[in-house]
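debug: dumping io for the single-chain case to check the tokenizer round-trip. Nothing else runs in this session.
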Amino acid sequence: MMTRMLPALVALALGAWSVGPVDAQVQEPHLVATGVAECVTATMRDDLSRDAWAEELADGWRVNIPLRGQPAAQRDVQSAPPHRAQLAWFDLRRYDDESGITEDWNAILPYRVNTSSGIYIVDGGGYFWFRSNGVTKRCLEEAMGGAYQPQRI
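debug: decoded output
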């Protein structure tokens, strides 16, 4: 009997273990930022000069994305990869609710991700490339289980 139950117990234990990090990320914004950096690294491996990394800011976290220079890439596209190595970054700021969100953020790049633990406003800088912007959105959604919402203009 115990031999038959062992696979079910292992599956149950693995399922519980896989839920744990998501709950921890909800409580710990630094784990969210680190998770986004790891996801960006895994997704954009061929476009990076090294792994992406997270660093703490006074009011949130920054995910740094070191883009590899791609001088042979097609240049007559709307958003080309960088010709030489460039750094892009995305600042993650978490708010408990709408009342904490400031009005002075950039009206072009920022976006928000609503989660069960609050609202993340994401603003970027450095080299602007649609690929790194889109990957960062997907990685934050994955890390938090939230939904991307474009800013109303």
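debug: round-trip ok. Residues 18-71+78-150 form one domain.
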